[in-house]
Write a structure and sequence with these properties.
Elements lengths: L1 H23 L2 H24 L4 H47 L1 H14 L4 H12 L2 H12 L9 H16 L4 H9 L5 H24 L3 H31 L1
């Protein structure tokens, strides 16, 4: 019984590891979707504050941006990934046709590829024979080595969903204080608290970005926060300028 329990726990752990690994592949989409959501929503809020708009208008503009811009970004992620998959499949079909109908020419291309890598003599022949003995392996080699194309393993649908969810979740942060104030009338310096919360969001996104790109954590956090602050500052002064221009 102990062995069965141990095996069950081990299987459960392996399943959780596989699940985590599978969805960890979409961390990049979560990072960039969240970063875009935080930057654009914070910029909308800053621009509205600079223009002196009412808090209810800020909430409306903020949520309109979240829903519309987030959807547009997710559709873009979906279509981009779908396009990459379709392009890969088109060239893959061409390679299968060439392997079936021009095997000698395709074999010679494999020879040239591995010659350029330093293979020669009997070893070169063994490598070429091994690759060309299996059609799928042969085509896969041609896709990678000749066309320099790697098959996209991510689902276009999941790419779109993850991008949209991250855009909404992180992009909601600059609006939280205004929503709370609208329902509770708590007396706060809303834009200051929004700036603090959004800065924390930028810091978290920067940490995740560093993990995705495998770069320096401090540098990634600094770059993300700088981008957000620059966008918000620009939007604030543009809003303030337009407000003064219109009102005279």
């Amino acid at each position: 019984m102990t062995d069965l329990g141990s095996d069950h726990n081990e299987l459960h752990i392996h399943k959780r590891i596989r699940w985590f690994t599978k969805y960890q592949n979409y961390l990049g989409e979560f990072v960039y979707g969240g970063m875009d959501g935080a930057v654009t929503t914070f910029a909308v809020v800053a621009g509205a504050v600079g223009a002196g708009l009412d808090n209810s208008v800020i909430i409306i503009l903020g949520f309109a941006n979240l829903i519309a811009d987030g959807f547009a970004m997710s559709v873009g992620a979906y279509l981009s990934t779908k396009s990459v998959l379709e392009n890969y499949k088109k060239h893959e079909q061409i390679e299968y046709w060439e392997v079936d109908n021009m095997p000698e020419k395709e074999r010679e291309e494999v020879v040239e590829i591995y010659k350029s890598k330093g293979f020669e003599g009997d070893l070169l022949e063994q490598v070429v024979d091994t690759i060309t003995s299996n059609k799928d392996r042969w085509v896969d080699t041609m896709m990678k080595e000749e066309l320099l194309m790697l098959k996209e393993t991510k689902s276009p649908v999941m790419m779109g969903i993850v991008t949209y969810i991250s855009f909404i979740l992180i992009g909601l942060i600059p609006l939280i204080t205004y929503v709370i104030n609208y329902f509770t009338n708590v007396s706060l310096n809303l834009f200051v608290w929004t700036s603090i919360l959004t800065s924390l969001a930028f810091a978290i996104i920067g940490l995740l970005k560093a993990k995705v790109t495998e770069t320096n954590t401090v540098k990634a956090v600094f770059e993300t926060m700088t981008l957000g602050i620059f966008a918000a500052t620009l939007a604030f002064f543009v809003g303030d300028f337009i407000e003064h221009l219109i009102t005279g």
